[in-house]
Amino acid sequence: MLKTIRRLLAVIFFIGITALFLDFSGTVQPLFGWMAKLQFLPSVLALSIVPIIIVVGITLLFGRIYCSAICPLGVYQDIVAWIGKQKPFRSNKKAKLANKYSYSAPMTKLRLAVLILFAALMIIPGFNAIAIIIAPYSAYGRMASTILQPAYIAINNLLADWAAANDSFAFYQVEPHNNPTILIVIAAVSAIILAILAFRNGRTYCNTICPVGTVLGYVAKFSYFKIQVDNDACMHCGLCAKNCKAACIHIEKGQPAVIDYTRCVSCGDCIPVCSKQAIKHAPLKKAAAQATEPTADSGISRRNFLAITGTALAATAVKAQEKVTDGGYAAIADKEIPQRKTPITPPGSLSAKNLQQHCTACQLCISNCPNGVLRPSTDLDHFMQPEVQYEKGYCRPECTRCSDICPAGAIRPISLDPATAEADDLPSWAAKQTIQIGHAVWISKNCLPAAEGIPCGNCARHCPVEAIQMVPMDKDIKMDAEGRCTDQDGNPVDRNTVTFIPAVNTEKCIGCGACENLCPVRPFSAIYVEGHEVHRDI
Amino acid sequence: MKDINRRDFLKLSGAVAATTAIASCGGGNNAEGDFDPSGHHTGPVPTDKMTYRTNPKQGDKVSILGYGWMRLPMLPLPENADPNNPPEEQIDQEQCNRLAKYALDHGVNYFDTSPVYTQGKSEASLGTALKASGYDRSKFFIATKLSNFSKELQTYEKGVEMFQNSLRYLQTDYVDYLLLHALGGGGMNGFRERYIDNGLLDYLVEQREKGTIRNLGFSYHGDNDTYKELLALNDKYHWDFVQIQMNYVDWNHSEGHFLYEELEKLNIPAVIMEPLLGGRLAKLPDHVVAHLKQRAPENSVASWAFRYCGTKPGVMCVLSGMTYMEHLEDNIRSFSPLEPLTTEDVDWLEGETANLIVQYPTIPCNDCKYCMPCPYGLDIPAIFVHYNKCINKGYVPESREAKNYKQARQAFLVGYDRSVPKLRQANHCVGCQMCVKHCPQNIRIPAELRKIDQFVEKLKTNTL
Description:
Chain A is an alpha+beta fold.
């Protein structure tokens, strides 16, 4: 019974969370977004009381069922372990059961040491990126988003080709995210190491390394329901221990069975194995619940990690060529990322500091960004955490996907609640237009009108908050509110003869990057966004 | 059919044409005897029934269907091509050769090209295709142009070089019809700069006397006054023919009749370009298709536009840029022989049908690609083609309240990304106006692109 329920839950959660990482259309988040928000470490980092209470509560009731059903990395290991238990991999191919495992002594000191080190690294400035490599949920996220999502997108794109050939609009082409090699390597190495460990010994990682496993293990000691062996019925055959992937059942002849509840993940595998039906998952009378302390903390100030680099931007203005023959396309150079003095962080992240402290680098926001804006940082200070760049797209006004989906409070929700939105007749994303994540900076020597005299204004036309206006470059020409121009003497001037340049109202600018992305000048735009360390409400 | 009775300076040639003209006076579309009993539209494409018009100057018998060597079949791009910086498209010359041979076999003998068409490769392609057909040079007429659009090409030397290159590419030592390309843009000043001040027109007249140019004329895209001025020069230069735009939509709506009627007055043969408005009159919205099909269920939608032009007696040749064999076949059928439209048909097309089409908010782009390449990399015609296609299919909703809004939004946006790479979409237009002067339809391209961009933005943000 326990095993069946656990397996069912595991399948649901595993598919749901994996779908969150694969999806690029935004349709999965409303269905399964809550599954990511239930993840323990992100909840702790987000200081989200409700999910913490739910997870701790479930653990106090049933033991570490979280590790067996809700944690995607746990389920991933179970799947590998299950494969490892199949007939071709067994030493005794005739046995009915795999009998693959054996009891091992608890490594309490190692577990505690890893937990303390992890907690310490999480709060020591600039080291959380390293600590996060061993965090369970984000480790799975990295695997899913860097290995599974590209495959998923490739399949989607094949379907899109097919759809295009058949005049269907059901599928559309998606550009896969460009993941840095180091991130793919980290994801692949963790996937392989975990697979080997799980294949051979089951839950080794969960019961030695995993910080969440250690914390919940401590909580599970006091759980109400526990796996228990009826010592009167038990024949000490040891079948349960041989099939315990957590290696936590200790059976010795003449001794009552001992179960290490800090390592038991309440998977229920042992229950059907016992030929005497001596094992059950039931309340233990003397168990007493106790509160537990949170692992990670926030609030320690960090060093100013923002490097000051003021390299001048190379100017390359598009030189319009006169056409000679009909047809053909002008080549389009790729945009390059400008050197920003202050990095940009997504709206909802409040500040660079908040993002860095709370982000578990699970890649969920990145794999969900439909505009190619978010990507994992390779900078050591925020290694694998999302960073914002605008060379492929810009932070579109109607999109709040990263903030909707982040489980760690690193990017907080920014959508208006439906009631307010409806009352004010606003779209739910209207609030995004009031969050200033940076401001646009104009580079005159790159600008088409200023440098080449070619009329443009594409930045002004596409600014979603109308923070850019086009003003006459000639200081002697005056322009009134209707856009009529006059010269020094007040004589009207034909607008077509005036060169207009963009003027950024940095107080209104929200830093979305529409101007930078849509600027026709390549590879370096004539207008780019400088980030703000702390976001402002405008 | 008062036009036909009133004037016949271009004689309908051949008994076949004469009988159809009589038959059509009876009003029937399927005059007995002339058609395969199994069906005119499914039987073999006739090889010997093409209608010819006689150019009075040297008695050229010109097929009324002319082949515009412009929308050529292209080889598919390599599969791994970068959509943002695609390699230059290559002409499918093998298919071009087939098309030219097929056209010649079925009586088409007028081929129209220009040094600028298809990224400057059209002339060489036509020369190769005609050579490969095995037909003698005397069996077909070649029309090409002096297309000195860019300032640097507007000298005498460059102009002569362009003409000599044309002869070389076309593998011939004379051109049957030479056109001053697209007069009207830039008014009379443009004309003087390109051909008069540099002495180029004198050179061309000289070549006509020598026989390297058999007929000299011009193609026209511009206002009525410049047109009149150019025609007034007939006494001096003797225009042997003029190429104009004609179709049943423009006849009343854009004063299309004016261009034609002026030529009629001077007995100058007209060559018709854009009879289909660049394909638009072949791809009409459903309700217009129904309207046309109801009148003659077996005739193709495009055939109305071709027969309309052919019915005007002063028309020597109707050009069509035919990319596909099926188009070529259909057009040959429409003209083999030409069955002139009745007066009622003409009135119905110019009136009711044209009104139906004009009311439709499509952009009058006919994908001629004269505006390309856009210096900022936009694919202007592809954007307009997509927009028009969506209008025709009902994918341009008025507002969020529209019944099919969700479906239309998906179709428009997904189709947009499919038809136009992201970096070549309307939101990258800077408004430099470079394209405007190249558009023969006088579309205010940047303004239309801006409208489409704003529409897309509203779809994306769901604020339509």
